Amino acid sequence: MNISTKTLKSNRTNALYWKCQLLGWCTVSVYWAYTVYTRDDYGVFYTFCNYVLDVAIGIFLTHMYRTYALKANWSQLPIKKLLVRVIPSILLLAFLYVLLNNLKWYGYWTLIAEEDKNIWVSLLYWDPILLTGLRLMSIWILAYHLYHYYQKEVVTAREYAQLSLVAKQAQLDNLSAQLNPHFLFNSLNSIKSLIVENPNVARRGIDLLSDLLRSSLYEKDKDLISVKNELALVNDYIELEKLRFEERLEIDITLDKTLAHFKIPTLSIQLLIENAIKHGIDKVIEGGLITLKIDKNGDQVYIQVQNPGKLNDTKSANGLGLMNLKKRLELQYNKEASFTLEEIANNIVQATILVPYRADENI
What we know:
Elements: H1 3-38, H2 43-71, H3 79-112, H4 119-123, H5 129-178, H6 181-197, H7 199-218, E1 224-226, H8 227-245, E2 249-255, E3 263-265, H9 268-279, E4 288-297, E5 300-308, H10 314-318, H11 320-332, E6 338-344, E7 348-356
Parallel strand pairs: 2-4
Antiparallel strand pairs: 1-3, 4-5, 5-7, 6-7
Helix pairs in contact: 1-2, 2-3, 3-5, 5-7, 5-11, 6-7, 6-8, 7-8, 8-9
């Protein structure tokens, strides 16, 4: 979302907030205006002044609460922690509501009606104003947080739907890649050449190919997968590709063993390895070494793949698979993850995935 879109959305939210504030407090204050006009004989002008002050008091107190709640980010708190803060806030706002209304009442009867009223007696008059304040503040705060809870749920549902859609698209892309005629032809051709020469290796190749196709089908319902299981798929893929590239393809995998059960987006490492072979090894006559490193740095886990080649193929940098990977990372980790693809020294292309380390992601 760009800056102008965020600004427009913020302006709409503020406009809606002020409309609700004015409409709500103007409606509520009509009752008190009617009461002072008919019971206390305020007259039209002073009834109107009292009405405006009632609206102003309600808006002032609730807006003060909203400002603090936004600053403290209370809308992101779980229900239990929110209640611990909301209940004292209601009591405090009701207390301030009583004081401000009593000051308003005292000011009218002493300054305008010119009657002798004791300020302490006026300030200590709580019934029924306290109950009114508790009721009004409870309703307002409940409505405010219910609205934000609803908005958060809508955003979460929308992001989850987008994530599921992008993940399914990535799985379809992966399946499509596995069923790619060139990939199947090359794999089957390699297996065919080994049937007579080395039947055991040929049978192994068939097993690997069937495992890869099976994983593309049966892993499709998982958004996340453990690093250990993902590497099992990667090793099968590498072993199958080595039937074709033979000594031209080498791989070196370094894994922090504490991350073996850490969850990552399904087929993300395999996508990077496929990209490294397709746009790197396959285009270099002598082949080369692919290095895969999975490690933790502070509160981030990084997955880094390096391969020989140059980053001059726009398809390799802007392919549908990598674009979907970026989108999945953005949705899965709420923009706390990132993906970069860059050419570093000595004709080496480096792809890096950074995701936040979360203990509850372990399985």
